[in-house]
Write a structure and sequence with these properties.
By secondary structure, the chain is mainly β. The protein has three helices and 28 strands. The strands form eight sheets. It has a nine-stranded antiparallel β-sheet with strand order 12-13-14-15-28-24-23-18-21. The protein has a five-stranded antiparallel β-sheet with strand order 20-19-22-25-26, with no helix packed on it. Strand 23 (266-272) and strand 24 (278-284) form a beta hairpin.
Length: 358
């Protein structure tokens, strides 16, 4: 028996156009009861319903109830991020001896692929099965200012029991470029209507992280987390972890899972919610994991309006984003971000859900 089964957003409220392309919302489901809603605008995860303690089901990602609300909201909410997730310092880099200047949209930096990144684009979508959706987008140099054109394919799949799998594959079509792809769902494991995630217990398995400067660019150091507020290897309530940080800006830092992309999946993080009893593990083959605590949310409208009339406030959710290292094109000792024709790159992310013992 299922209790309190949350509704998914209504596809009819997402029918429309953006950038001259048709927008749609797709529902995914499994026989075991997992359900998700994915919009082709930004390849965006807008709902994910998973079981918790006592047979109750919870929608554990923040999102939007309609296309107009989504277009007025946060561009990163639930989206696939590229062609370069995170920041490129100074809005530029040099590749194969040629300097490239990018549009700056985060002070002097280029964030999440700039103003023409794929979080702003309407993907082509095809429903492969009730539990599987495939989306495609082609980055064009003429649109986003990065070198060359790149074809990106993203697959969402639900698997029983309790797995959301996201796979991506990218191929440079004409010249060498740089690439960093991730996904940006905002998770609240008590349910997206819960006020905050400060009671969530967060474990991040990494022994090292990337310190950043005042504008969020890695300094170049790969630092140990030992004896710092960034050491979450043993697990800590988020409110306690935030209290140990200097300043008031929260977490927006990349943790180091390895120094190469690809290879077998490895666990990067685990989060537990005490009331719902939901636990989530993040597994990926990416070298980094960006941890973002949404500490700059402030309930401003329409930016922080969400599903069910919710207004998302400080630490309403948290993000765990498997990815390459930020500013890698400018940091030669970081894992390379270069993508060359004839050498496709792929990534694999799994969010695995379970229920804690009572």
């Amino acid at each position: 028996m299922t209790l309190n089964l949350p509704d998914l957003p209504d596809p009819e409220l997402f029918r429309g156009w953006a950038g001259g392309r048709p927008v749609s919302l797709f529902h995914l489901s499994t026989p075991g009861g997992l359900r998700a809603a994915v919009c082709n605008h930004g390849a965006r995860l807008l709902a994910l319903v998973v079981p918790g303690r006592g047979g109750r089901w919870h929608d554990v990602v923040l999102g939007y109830a309609s296309l107009p609300q989504m277009l007025d909201g946060m561009a990163s909410m639930g989206a696939v991020i590229g062609r370069f997730a995170n920041r490129i310092g100074g809005g530029g880099f040099t590749l194969d001896g040629q300097a490239w200047k990018l549009p700056a949209n985060d002070g002097p930096n280029c964030l999440h692929g700039g103003p023409a990144g794929c979080r702003h684009q309407v993907f082509d979508a095809s429903a492969m099965a009730p539990d599987h959706l495939r989306l495609r987008w082609t980055f064009r140099q003429a649109d986003d200012g990065f070198p060359g054109d790149v074809m990106l394919r993203v697959d969402y799949r639900l698997r029983d029991p309790g797995v959301l799998e996201i796979r991506w594959k990218a191929q440079a079509l004409d010249r060498a470029t740089v690439l960093n792809i991730t996904t940006h769902p905002f998770f609240n494991l008590e349910g997206q209507g819960s006020a905050h995630v400060r009671a969530h217990r967060v474990t991040i398995d990494a022994a090292c992280y990337l310190p950043v400067d005042a504008v969020g660019i890695p300094t170049g150091a790969i630092a140990t987390v030992a004896a710092t507020p960034f050491d979450l290897r043993e697990g800590l309530r988020l409110d306690a972890a935030l209290a140990a940080l200097p300043g008031d800006t929260g977490f927006d830092h990349c943790y180091v899972n390895g120094m190469a992309e690809g290879g077998p999946l490895r666990r990067a993080a685990r989060v537990e919610a005490p009331d719902s009893g939901i636990a989530m593990e993040v597994w990926s083959d990416a070298p980094g994991l960006q941890f973002f605590s949404a500490s700059k949310f402030n309930g401003s409208l329409p930016r922080h309006a969400g599903k069910g009339g919710r207004v998302y406030q400080r630490e309403a959710a948290l993000c765990l984003e498997p990815q390459g290292f930020p500013d890698a094109p400018n940091q030669p000792h970081f894992p390379s971000a270069a993508l060359r024709p004839g050498m496709p790159r792929s990534g694999h992310i799994e969010y695995r859900f379970s229920v804690l013992d009572a």
